[in-house]
Design a protein that fits this description.
By secondary structure, the protein is of the alpha/beta class. Among the domains are: 41 residues, no CATH class; 165 residues, Rossmann fold. 26% of the residues lie in helices and 13% in strands. The strands form three sheets. The chain has a seven-stranded mixed beta sheet with strand order 8-7-6-5-9-10-11. Strands 1-2 form a two-stranded antiparallel sheet. A two-stranded antiparallel ribbon has the order 3-4. Helix 3 crosses helix 5 and helix 3 packs parallel to helix 8. The termini are far apart.
Length: 324
């Protein structure tokens, strides 16, 4: 900052006050001489630079004139109790910085290719629907098939011998097995968009629990019987039933969250789909995102629904499996 017409410059120090505070202090104290001005500037962290006078050639006496004093306009009379304010002549130099200019290397950089996966989403750190300590056990229990391949069921044998009933085959206790794999169907309806990250997490969790080579994953709208969506586009292909006896998991809210303009849920379509699978020896398990109280009443007691809720425990899943 420099004073107009004097050539003197005010140089700020490393811990200098702001220009606004400096102007306010000079306007209040009004130094009369250069020494007082230097003391004020030093107290505020500034320094006064006085340029050296350049040597001039001697002029004739007739050319020499006294310096003309600056004409000041008369100051308005201040009211009682108020100070008069006169403007302090100064020149503020604003240094403009280059903002927003890209570095030279950016013009030669190669852009990263966009992801070709239509289902790719930005993954945020969010808690899963199921408790992490019980997630693997619950999903494996839902995808398992009950097979009579355990130890000999002595209770059944004793009961048959007591009533003199012949044993056609040797009864054995049931065991849960994942060797038949599973079919995982994911609802891609607009009402399921808030659970997009949860569905992606469930696909990875079911694949890890059952086995990557034993899980078939597909998408559908509304009900799987209407057709399945291909992962590489929006084309619809007819539903192909899984191998006989293979469990089917469907991640859906059964139309409980219906987007505006979407067709109304059809409970009859789900019941027909479940009946078709049951005839082939496959069991349908609905993985419902939310508490059990949100399941539609028309399907709550007629389909095997496992609530994906952090309150769902392993004991509740065992009781649920005995029912279905």
């Amino acid at each position: 900052m420099s004073e107009a017409g004097t050539g003197r410059r005010i140089r700020p120090g490393p811990h200098a006050a702001s220009p606004a505070d400096l102007l306010r202090a000079l306007d209040t104290l009004r130094p009369e001489d250069e020494a007082t001005l230097g003391v004020i500037l030093a107290a505020l962290g500034h320094a006064l630079e006085v340029p050296r006078a350049a040597p001039q050639a001697a002029l004739a006496p007739s050319v020499l004139r006294p310096p003309a004093r600056a004409m000041r306009s008369p100051e308005p009379s201040a009211e009682p109790g108020q100070r008069s304010r006169r403007p302090l002549a100064s020149d503020l130099t604003v240094q403009e910085e280059a903002v927003g200019l890209a570095p030279p290397w950016m013009a030669e950089a190669t852009l990263l290719p966009l992801s070709g996966d239509p289902g790719a989403v930005f993954r945020l750190a969010m808690p899963p629907l199921l408790a992490p300590a019980r997630e693997r056990a619950l999903l494996a229990h839902a995808a398992a098939r009950r097979l009579e391949e355990g130890e000999v069921d002595l209770d059944h044998v004793v009961a048959a011998v007591t009533v003199r009933q012949p044993l056609v085959r040797l009864p054995r206790r049931q065991l849960s097995s994942l060797r038949n794999g599973a079919t995982l169907l994911c609802d891609a309806s607009p009402g399921m968009e808030p659970f997009a990250l949860d569905i992606a997490h469930l696909v990875a969790a079911v694949t890890a629990a059952v086995g990557r080579d034993r899980v078939r994953v597909a998408r559908f709208f509304g009900c799987p019987s209407r057709g399945l969506l291909r992962w590489d586009g929006e084309e619809v292909e007819s539903f192909r039933p899984p191998p006989e006896g293979q469990p089917v998991l469907a991640v859906t809210d059964l139309g409980a969250t219906r987007a505006p303009g979407a067709p109304a849920p059809a409970p009859a379509a789900w019941l027909e789909f479940e009946g078709m699978l049951r005839q082939r020896g496959s069991r349908l398990t609905v993985l419902f995102p939310g508490a059990a109280g949100r399941v539609p009443a028309a399907l709550g007691g007629r389909l095997a629904v496992l609530p994906l809720d952090r309150a769902t425990g392993v004991h509740a899943a065992v009781r649920w499996r005995r029912r279905w």
